[in-house]
Amino acid sequence: MRPRLALPSVSTLHKNLSIPVCCKIRLLPKLEDTIKLALVLQNAGCQVLAVHGRTRESNSRGPADWAAIRQIKEALSIPVVANGGVDELEDVERCLNETKADAVMVAYPALLNPRFFGGGEKADGVELLHEYLSYVERYPAQSKTIKSHARKLLKPMWGKHKDLREQLEAWDERDQAIASVVLRIAQELKYRIDNGIEVDLKPPEAELEEGDGYALFGPQADDDY
Ligand SMILES: Cc1cc2nc3c(=O)[nH]c(=O)nc-3n(C[C@H](O)[C@H](O)[C@H](O)COP(=O)(O)O)c2cc1C
Question: The whole model's pTM is what?
Fold first, then answer.
């Protein structure tokens, strides 16, 4: 966030809108600077502040600094939303306790499991994909969006079946038939898992490390979130 650009915008929005202005920041390298920024935003009219507990430089999937969020919360009088490090439903309570925040915000984990807040059993990716594609029929989406959602919904299932993931990645995003391709890949994946079929493949030359998917396929590491 660039305070010189953001502050007049927050102030103008606050003065001209009938709804509350909500801002979101990442941690700055120094906590005291982050607290100052948060206070300036509050003074400019921000009425809810979401704090992503990582710096811009830190990896988006590294640990989130909940202690820092707590200190920011303690310095402000407006509600604070804690973000980052809430990967499972059980983390919500822990995050609220440790940060004393008023709410938590979840992004990436809810893309992996859209039933995140429903609790209960871990959702089956293929079942979720069917449901997702039924929504796509009603609310058409771009092929690249469908591919991106399929990648995340199936992520916990890829395991030894990276050849199928590669098939998905190789699919030309301009191709309109993406929904049927995605379904075919998902069904093959489920069939293999249900029947204990393992495909013995040499690792691709540029093998991706677990977690790289986020940097490569999700928001890039240098996105200013
Ligand atoms: C697909 C996607 C899009 C995002 N877009 C934005 C955005 O436009 N603005 C923003 O401030 N953060 C954005 N983020 C970052 C999230 O709001 C959040 O700060 C970050 O993912 C950490 O939270 P998480 O651990 O729950 O994913 C995005 C994240 C994802 C996964």
Answer: 0.81
The token pair at 172 is: 């030309």
**Whole-number Å distance between alpha carbons of 212 and 215:** 5
Quick one: which atom of ligand 1 is closest to the CA of 83? 23
For 114-152, write each residue's pLDDT tens digit: 888 887 677 788 999 999 999 999 998 888 899 999 999
List the Cα angle 142/131/110 in 5-degree steps: 75
Task: Provide the token pair at 72.
Answer: 């920011």
Torsion angle defined by CA atoms of residues 35, 38, 44 and 47, in that order, rounded to the nearest 10 degrees: -140
Residue from 171, 169, 174, 153 nearest 208 by CA: 169
At residue 121, the 3 state secondary structure works out as: coil
Does residue 106 line the site of ligand 1, with CB under 6 A? Answer: yes
Q: Closest Cα to atom 29, ligand 1: which residue?
A: 107
**For residue 23, what pLDDT is reported?**
97
Domains of the chain are 3-106 (3.20.20.70), 125-194 (no CATH)
Is 217 a pocket residue for ligand 1 (Cβ < 6 Å)?
A: no
Question: Which structure tokens are listed for 26?
Answer: 């990442």
